[in-house]
Amino acid sequence: MPTTHAPGLRRIWYLCVSLRVLVGLWCVTASSFLEYPNMAHAANGSAPTSVTVAPTGDDTAAGTEGEPLATLAGARDAVRRLRGRGVTGAVDVVVKPGTYYLAEPLVLGPEDSGTAEGPTTYRAAAGGRVVLSGGVPISGWKKREGGVWAAAVPADLDFRLLRVGDRWATRARFPNYDAKNPRTGGWLFADGITPAPAPGSPTTFMHYRTGDLPAFADLSGAEVHVFIAWGWVNAIVPIATIDPVQNRIGFAGKGASQDTRAGNRYFIENVREALDAPGEWFLDKYKGEVLYIPDIPGFPNVPVAASRLDTMIRFAGDPGAGRFVEHVNIAGFHFTDTTHTIAQEYYTPDDACVQMSGARNCEVRGCEFSWCGGYALRLSDRSERCVFASNRLHDMGQGGVIMLGDTKSQAHHCAVVANRLVRLGLIYKHVAGVYITSGCDNYVAHNSISDVPRYAVSMKSQGEERLSHRNVVEFNDIRRANLETNDTGAIESLGYERRDSGNVIRHNMILDVVGMITTPDGKIETPYFSWGIYLDDFSSGTLIYGNIVARTPTGGVCIHGGKNNVVENNILVEGRDRQVHLHPEDRTMQNNRFVHNIVAYSRPEAELFYLFQSWKRNQPGRFSECDHNLYWLTTGADLKTLGTKNTPDGPFAAWLAHGFDAHSLVADPKFIDAGADDFRLAPDSPAFSLGFKPIPVELIGPDGWVQRGRPLGPDPAGR
Q1: Which domain holds residue 147?
Q2: Which of 112, 130, 148 is the last residue of a domain?
Q3: Average pLDDT of the chain?
Q4: Is position 99 within any domain?
Q5: Which of 74, 136, 393, 503 has its CA 20 to 30 A from that of 703?
Q6: Cβ contacts of residue 296 below 8 Å, gap of 6+?
């Protein structure tokens, strides 16, 4: 609660905290990424040296326009020869339109580096799509009985994903995929708890309900896809046995890393007897053929590809020896047909189309990624000042960009800007559009992220050994996040180290946060237990400024255990059950501020402020300052006279009596058109009298990035 003693000292303390946050913001923010210094050609304006690749090429050719090479690997070797002969200017590898099936990943080492004045760029030529496929084309289909078609596959080809036309076919599964209810239908539900045999040991089996599973004759290759434990992650686990006497599915391999519980939803995949519905396929490894029941017009005269590679381009630097892959850029390609591996570490997967390890000042720009089993980009091993910009991602098995490593080896000073990401997490669900599992001084801005099963953006500090500090997340347009998991937020952070992070979450638009869980008796609840912005597990020293968050189950903002966080100048609209959630764990949670915000909602029974264990009057967790806010019940009910308990102290009037919101107002904020999600304010909005600053909504999303001009600094992040 606010105190009345030493107000001058308190104001000085607030000023110091605010200055500390603002200084951190000034150091890491960026104005735009309209120009890429390391994508530029030589400063003297000379034309780049070109190497040409074409589908009709030959890797023994000269690599010219008239005598093109055939592969990216052939082009890489040609660039090495050019550099070896003393070419220091820009080199462009121009890849002609067509589809290129990669037999193995293109590996780029330090010897493939360009320079700031003479970068090496692999780019798609104009005039048509240039597709890089990590798959193997499948042809020669023959019709069998029962509507099944078959095609021979190479003996060494074992694959998990099959693209037919412009989408994945469904691997034969039980129960069948429910196209009308893709998230809530087509599930079975576990029965009972199966804990790990010892702490840290894998779970080796799960219980199923009597009568749920048929007696499959052959389980070789069968897998169970199950949302384990709390439903935060899904596991894909090979099946060893199904015991109809004990109703147990025995796990093969390493099992599941968390326990299974009653109500956990699951299905079984890759069983020959489950091949019974249009759109399903099955790989018969013993006969060397793939079986498919078509569900698209024109089959078999459509392209079909089996995913083989889990990555297509790998930047392999040696940062320990001070040797990075530098100034190499990828531009304009369409990446598709990568596979995924069965993960044991669900929180830190390895699969990605492009992997940058020990890369510096490298870029991926203007590319498309679709029907890929992993992420688009993986950054690790001290990769720095790398840029992922103006790319389009859709229908991805995992997420967009992931950063991995410990505090010493993490990626840092990287930028993810002006990308469009939609329909992520089709396979693994604990993913994000941008997932900073560990990383500092990164910039995530002006992206459009929608339809994700968990986070749009996540920044996790898991102790001093894995920090995520001084990251800026701003001007992102986020829609329909947290569709398939719970206890989550559209933008989320973690703060196990319990000290100020300097992270900034600013000027983002977050609409329709959902959340999902299954009950022990096998019912799906959605929307459920999710927030717009979630400062989880002691996240501290974070600035949440100027965001618009609308339509969440449990609030626009949640602070879970952290300190020194500032929530200022935000618009929070229509939290179903509550608007702001405060969740202390111990006395760490102190000195959080909630000022100059607008909160509007329609359900009088919803809580304005929720405090976990609010009956503990002297517990930490309450705001140290909560004032100059504007509140409005859109039904017209007066918060000041409403008798409903909607704060930790009871009715709003009791909250006021304890010293909170002394200068706040209860009034209509006068949104331009809330029904159309236009939350700009009319000129006579009473919020302005409280010090509210207009949010530059015209700059939110990729189009806003274009409007912001040139970078301020000498590097791509404008720092």
Answers
A1: 137-306
A2: 130
A3: 92
A4: yes
A5: 503
A6: 164, 165, 279, 302
